[in-house]
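User: C-alpha coordinates for both sequences below?

Assistant:
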Amino acid sequence: MTRVTGRARHLRGLLAGAAAGAAGTTALNAVGYLDMVTRGRGESTTPEVTVERLSETLHVPIPGNEDVRKNRVKGLGPLTGIASGVGMGALLGLALSCGWRPGSALLTATATTGALIGTNGPMTVLRVTDPRTWSRSDWVADIVPHVAYALVTVAVIRRLGPDPTDHIGESRTGIRQRGATLRHILCS
Protein backbone atom coordinates (compact mmCIF):
# COMPACT_ATOMS: atom_id res chain seq x y z
CA MET A 1 0.00 0.00 0.00
CA THR A 2 1.40 3.39 -0.94
CA ARG A 3 0.97 6.15 1.60
CA VAL A 4 -0.04 9.58 0.34
CA THR A 5 2.41 12.13 1.73
CA GLY A 6 3.10 15.86 1.79
CA ARG A 7 1.31 18.16 -0.57
CA ALA A 8 -0.68 15.38 -2.21
CA ARG A 9 -2.07 14.35 1.19
CA HIS A 10 -3.01 17.93 2.01
CA LEU A 11 -4.60 18.46 -1.41
CA ARG A 12 -6.55 15.23 -0.99
CA GLY A 13 -7.72 16.38 2.46
CA LEU A 14 -8.66 19.81 1.13
CA LEU A 15 -10.66 18.38 -1.79
CA ALA A 16 -12.33 15.70 0.32
CA GLY A 17 -13.25 18.36 2.85
CA ALA A 18 -14.65 20.62 0.13
CA ALA A 19 -16.80 17.75 -1.18
CA ALA A 20 -17.95 16.98 2.36
CA GLY A 21 -18.75 20.68 2.90
CA ALA A 22 -20.80 20.70 -0.32
CA ALA A 23 -22.77 17.68 0.90
CA GLY A 24 -23.24 19.34 4.28
CA THR A 25 -24.41 22.56 2.61
CA THR A 26 -27.02 20.58 0.70
CA ALA A 27 -28.25 19.12 4.00
CA LEU A 28 -28.33 22.59 5.60
CA ASN A 29 -30.36 23.97 2.70
CA ALA A 30 -32.75 20.99 2.75
CA VAL A 31 -33.40 21.41 6.48
CA GLY A 32 -33.92 25.15 5.98
CA TYR A 33 -36.40 24.59 3.17
CA LEU A 34 -38.22 21.93 5.20
CA ASP A 35 -38.51 24.48 8.01
CA MET A 36 -40.02 26.96 5.54
CA VAL A 37 -42.54 24.34 4.42
CA THR A 38 -43.37 23.21 7.97
CA ARG A 39 -43.75 26.64 9.53
CA GLY A 40 -44.91 28.44 6.40
CA ARG A 41 -42.21 31.07 6.81
CA GLY A 42 -40.66 33.11 4.04
CA GLU A 43 -37.06 32.93 2.97
CA SER A 44 -34.49 34.98 4.79
CA THR A 45 -33.30 38.16 3.13
CA THR A 46 -30.21 38.45 5.34
CA PRO A 47 -27.86 36.91 2.73
CA GLU A 48 -28.95 39.54 0.18
CA VAL A 49 -28.64 42.37 2.69
CA THR A 50 -25.18 41.05 3.59
CA VAL A 51 -24.12 41.14 -0.07
CA GLU A 52 -25.42 44.72 -0.34
CA ARG A 53 -23.55 45.81 2.81
CA LEU A 54 -20.39 44.03 1.72
CA SER A 55 -20.58 45.76 -1.65
CA GLU A 56 -20.95 49.15 0.06
CA THR A 57 -18.23 48.47 2.65
CA LEU A 58 -15.67 47.26 0.11
CA HIS A 59 -16.69 49.88 -2.48
CA VAL A 60 -17.21 47.16 -5.08
CA PRO A 61 -20.38 47.95 -7.00
CA ILE A 62 -22.62 45.20 -8.31
CA PRO A 63 -23.15 46.08 -11.97
CA GLY A 64 -26.37 46.23 -13.95
CA ASN A 65 -29.54 48.23 -14.17
CA GLU A 66 -31.95 48.00 -11.23
CA ASP A 67 -33.51 44.64 -12.19
CA VAL A 68 -30.26 43.01 -13.32
CA ARG A 69 -28.44 44.19 -10.20
CA LYS A 70 -31.28 42.95 -7.96
CA ASN A 71 -31.12 39.52 -9.60
CA ARG A 72 -27.34 39.38 -9.18
CA VAL A 73 -27.69 40.17 -5.47
CA LYS A 74 -30.33 37.42 -5.15
CA GLY A 75 -27.86 34.98 -6.71
CA LEU A 76 -24.84 36.17 -4.73
CA GLY A 77 -26.63 35.78 -1.38
CA PRO A 78 -26.97 31.99 -1.51
CA LEU A 79 -23.55 31.65 -3.14
CA THR A 80 -21.95 33.19 -0.04
CA GLY A 81 -23.56 30.44 2.06
CA ILE A 82 -22.34 27.76 -0.33
CA ALA A 83 -18.83 29.22 -0.25
CA SER A 84 -18.91 29.24 3.53
CA GLY A 85 -20.04 25.61 3.75
CA VAL A 86 -17.57 24.32 1.16
CA GLY A 87 -14.80 26.43 2.71
CA MET A 88 -15.45 25.13 6.21
CA GLY A 89 -15.37 21.56 4.92
CA ALA A 90 -12.12 22.24 3.07
CA LEU A 91 -10.53 23.64 6.26
CA LEU A 92 -11.62 20.57 8.22
CA GLY A 93 -10.22 18.27 5.53
CA LEU A 94 -6.94 20.16 5.56
CA ALA A 95 -6.73 19.99 9.36
CA LEU A 96 -7.34 16.24 9.26
CA SER A 97 -4.71 15.80 6.54
CA CYS A 98 -2.23 17.59 8.82
CA GLY A 99 -2.78 14.97 11.50
CA TRP A 100 -5.57 16.40 13.64
CA ARG A 101 -7.53 13.40 14.91
CA PRO A 102 -10.51 14.54 16.99
CA GLY A 103 -13.33 12.25 17.98
CA SER A 104 -16.55 12.53 16.01
CA ALA A 105 -18.25 14.64 18.71
CA LEU A 106 -15.46 17.24 18.70
CA LEU A 107 -15.29 17.25 14.89
CA THR A 108 -19.07 17.71 14.68
CA ALA A 109 -18.99 20.52 17.25
CA THR A 110 -16.14 22.18 15.35
CA ALA A 111 -18.00 21.91 12.04
CA THR A 112 -21.20 23.28 13.60
CA THR A 113 -19.40 26.18 15.25
CA GLY A 114 -17.37 26.94 12.15
CA ALA A 115 -20.46 26.96 9.95
CA LEU A 116 -22.33 29.20 12.39
CA ILE A 117 -19.44 31.65 12.53
CA GLY A 118 -18.84 31.45 8.78
CA THR A 119 -22.41 32.37 7.97
CA ASN A 120 -23.49 34.55 10.89
CA GLY A 121 -20.13 36.22 11.53
CA PRO A 122 -20.13 38.43 8.43
CA MET A 123 -23.80 39.30 8.94
CA THR A 124 -23.08 40.31 12.53
CA VAL A 125 -19.96 42.32 11.67
CA LEU A 126 -21.84 44.12 8.91
CA ARG A 127 -24.73 44.76 11.35
CA VAL A 128 -27.25 42.89 9.24
CA THR A 129 -28.28 40.92 12.32
CA ASP A 130 -27.51 40.83 16.02
CA PRO A 131 -27.61 37.32 17.55
CA ARG A 132 -27.92 38.88 21.02
CA THR A 133 -31.46 39.92 20.10
CA TRP A 134 -32.57 36.55 18.71
CA SER A 135 -35.40 34.66 20.37
CA ARG A 136 -35.11 31.02 21.37
CA SER A 137 -37.00 29.95 18.23
CA ASP A 138 -34.64 32.09 16.10
CA TRP A 139 -31.67 30.27 17.62
CA VAL A 140 -33.24 26.86 17.09
CA ALA A 141 -34.12 27.74 13.50
CA ASP A 142 -30.48 28.74 12.94
CA ILE A 143 -28.71 25.98 14.86
CA VAL A 144 -30.67 22.96 13.61
CA PRO A 145 -29.68 23.37 9.93
CA HIS A 146 -26.06 24.01 10.96
CA VAL A 147 -26.04 20.81 13.02
CA ALA A 148 -27.42 18.96 9.97
CA TYR A 149 -24.57 20.53 7.97
CA ALA A 150 -22.03 19.29 10.50
CA LEU A 151 -23.42 15.76 10.76
CA VAL A 152 -23.38 15.25 6.99
CA THR A 153 -20.02 16.98 6.54
CA VAL A 154 -18.39 14.82 9.22
CA ALA A 155 -19.93 11.61 7.83
CA VAL A 156 -18.67 12.38 4.32
CA ILE A 157 -15.24 13.62 5.37
CA ARG A 158 -14.70 10.48 7.45
CA ARG A 159 -15.34 8.43 4.29
CA LEU A 160 -13.40 10.56 1.82
CA GLY A 161 -10.77 12.31 3.87
CA PRO A 162 -7.40 11.39 5.24
CA ASP A 163 -7.84 8.15 7.09
CA PRO A 164 -5.78 7.11 10.10
CA THR A 165 -5.52 3.70 8.41
CA ASP A 166 -3.19 5.36 5.88
CA HIS A 167 -0.54 4.82 8.53
CA ILE A 168 -1.23 1.08 8.52
CA GLY A 169 0.38 0.85 5.09
CA GLU A 170 3.44 2.58 6.47
CA SER A 171 3.52 0.17 9.42
CA ARG A 172 3.19 -2.87 7.16
CA THR A 173 6.01 -1.62 4.94
CA GLY A 174 8.21 -1.11 8.01
CA ILE A 175 7.42 -4.61 9.29
CA ARG A 176 8.21 -6.12 5.87
CA GLN A 177 11.52 -4.26 5.73
CA ARG A 178 12.47 -5.40 9.23
CA GLY A 179 11.47 -8.95 8.35
CA ALA A 180 13.59 -8.86 5.21
CA THR A 181 16.53 -7.49 7.19
CA LEU A 182 16.12 -10.21 9.84
CA ARG A 183 15.90 -12.94 7.15
CA HIS A 184 19.02 -11.55 5.49
CA ILE A 185 20.93 -11.56 8.81
CA LEU A 186 19.74 -15.05 9.79
CA CYS A 187 20.13 -16.64 6.39
CA SER A 188 23.52 -15.14 5.44
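Moving on to the next sequence.
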Amino acid sequence: MTKEPSAIGDQRRSQLLRGVLDLCLLSLIAERPRYGFEFVAALADNGLDLVSEGSIYPLLSRLERDGAISSYRAPSASGGAPRKYYRLTDAGRAELTNGRAVWRAFSGQVGQILTGTGLTGESES
Protein backbone atom coordinates (compact mmCIF):
# COMPACT_ATOMS: atom_id res chain seq x y z
CA MET A 1 0.00 0.00 0.00
CA THR A 2 1.41 3.38 -0.99
CA LYS A 3 0.83 6.64 0.77
CA GLU A 4 -0.99 9.50 -0.92
CA PRO A 5 1.37 12.23 -2.18
CA SER A 6 -0.11 14.79 0.23
CA ALA A 7 0.42 12.42 3.19
CA ILE A 8 4.03 11.88 2.14
CA GLY A 9 4.49 15.64 1.74
CA ASP A 10 3.02 16.30 5.19
CA GLN A 11 5.28 13.67 6.71
CA ARG A 12 8.36 15.17 5.04
CA ARG A 13 7.35 18.70 6.10
CA SER A 14 6.88 17.47 9.66
CA GLN A 15 10.33 15.87 9.69
CA LEU A 16 11.97 18.98 8.27
CA LEU A 17 10.14 21.25 10.70
CA ARG A 18 11.16 19.13 13.67
CA GLY A 19 14.79 19.99 12.93
CA VAL A 20 14.25 23.75 12.90
CA LEU A 21 11.24 24.30 15.14
CA ASP A 22 13.42 25.57 17.99
CA LEU A 23 14.87 28.24 15.68
CA CYS A 24 11.38 29.20 14.53
CA LEU A 25 10.30 29.64 18.16
CA LEU A 26 13.40 31.69 19.00
CA SER A 27 12.75 33.89 15.97
CA LEU A 28 9.13 34.45 16.97
CA ILE A 29 10.18 35.33 20.52
CA ALA A 30 12.77 37.76 19.13
CA GLU A 31 9.88 39.72 17.59
CA ARG A 32 8.17 40.06 20.99
CA PRO A 33 7.48 37.99 24.10
CA ARG A 34 4.78 35.38 23.42
CA TYR A 35 2.69 32.81 25.26
CA GLY A 36 2.10 29.22 24.17
CA PHE A 37 -0.94 29.45 21.91
CA GLU A 38 0.50 32.49 20.12
CA PHE A 39 3.29 30.29 18.79
CA VAL A 40 0.85 27.86 17.21
CA ALA A 41 -1.10 30.73 15.63
CA ALA A 42 2.04 32.51 14.35
CA LEU A 43 3.42 29.29 12.87
CA ALA A 44 0.07 28.56 11.18
CA ASP A 45 -0.07 32.12 9.84
CA ASN A 46 3.29 31.41 8.19
CA GLY A 47 2.12 28.15 6.60
CA LEU A 48 3.41 25.81 9.30
CA ASP A 49 0.05 24.52 10.44
CA LEU A 50 1.37 21.04 11.28
CA VAL A 51 2.52 22.21 14.72
CA SER A 52 0.33 21.65 17.77
CA GLU A 53 0.56 23.03 21.27
CA GLY A 54 1.57 19.54 22.38
CA SER A 55 4.84 19.85 20.48
CA ILE A 56 5.47 23.48 21.44
CA TYR A 57 5.44 23.25 25.24
CA PRO A 58 8.10 20.53 25.65
CA LEU A 59 10.37 22.50 23.32
CA LEU A 60 9.78 25.73 25.24
CA SER A 61 10.64 23.88 28.46
CA ARG A 62 13.87 22.59 26.93
CA LEU A 63 14.83 26.04 25.63
CA GLU A 64 14.19 27.48 29.09
CA ARG A 65 16.24 24.74 30.80
CA ASP A 66 19.05 25.40 28.32
CA GLY A 67 18.98 29.12 29.17
CA ALA A 68 17.94 30.33 25.69
CA ILE A 69 14.67 31.79 26.97
CA SER A 70 13.18 32.89 30.27
CA SER A 71 9.55 33.11 31.27
CA TYR A 72 7.31 35.37 33.32
CA ARG A 73 3.61 35.46 34.13
CA ALA A 74 1.37 38.34 33.11
CA PRO A 75 -2.37 38.90 33.35
CA SER A 76 -4.45 37.75 30.41
CA ALA A 77 -5.95 40.53 28.30
CA SER A 78 -9.24 38.61 28.32
CA GLY A 79 -9.33 38.59 32.13
CA GLY A 80 -8.57 34.89 32.48
CA ALA A 81 -5.75 33.23 34.34
CA PRO A 82 -2.29 34.79 34.02
CA ARG A 83 -0.36 33.62 30.97
CA LYS A 84 3.21 32.40 30.86
CA TYR A 85 5.18 34.53 28.41
CA TYR A 86 8.60 33.67 27.00
CA ARG A 87 11.41 36.07 26.12
CA LEU A 88 14.91 35.64 24.73
CA THR A 89 17.97 35.69 26.91
CA ASP A 90 21.39 36.82 25.66
CA ALA A 91 22.23 33.14 25.13
CA GLY A 92 19.02 32.75 23.12
CA ARG A 93 19.91 35.71 20.91
CA ALA A 94 23.32 34.20 20.25
CA GLU A 95 21.74 30.81 19.49
CA LEU A 96 19.28 32.42 17.08
CA THR A 97 22.05 34.33 15.28
CA ASN A 98 24.12 31.16 14.96
CA GLY A 99 21.10 29.07 13.96
CA ARG A 100 20.13 31.52 11.23
CA ALA A 101 23.64 31.36 9.77
CA VAL A 102 23.62 27.56 9.85
CA TRP A 103 20.14 27.50 8.26
CA ARG A 104 21.15 29.88 5.43
CA ALA A 105 24.20 27.78 4.60
CA PHE A 106 22.36 24.47 4.88
CA SER A 107 19.27 25.51 2.94
CA GLY A 108 21.46 27.02 0.23
CA GLN A 109 23.41 23.80 -0.15
CA VAL A 110 20.26 21.66 -0.21
CA GLY A 111 18.69 24.09 -2.69
CA GLN A 112 21.63 23.70 -5.04
CA ILE A 113 21.34 19.93 -4.96
CA LEU A 114 17.56 19.84 -5.38
CA THR A 115 17.61 22.29 -8.29
CA GLY A 116 20.49 20.46 -9.95
CA THR A 117 22.90 23.40 -9.83
CA GLY A 118 25.21 21.61 -7.43
CA LEU A 119 25.51 18.41 -9.48
CA THR A 120 28.74 17.65 -11.29
CA GLY A 121 29.38 15.10 -14.01
CA GLU A 122 25.72 14.69 -14.96
CA SER A 123 23.43 16.80 -17.01
CA GLU A 124 19.75 17.25 -16.31
CA SER A 125 17.43 15.38 -18.63
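User: Anything stand out in the second?

Assistant: The radius of gyration is 18 Å.
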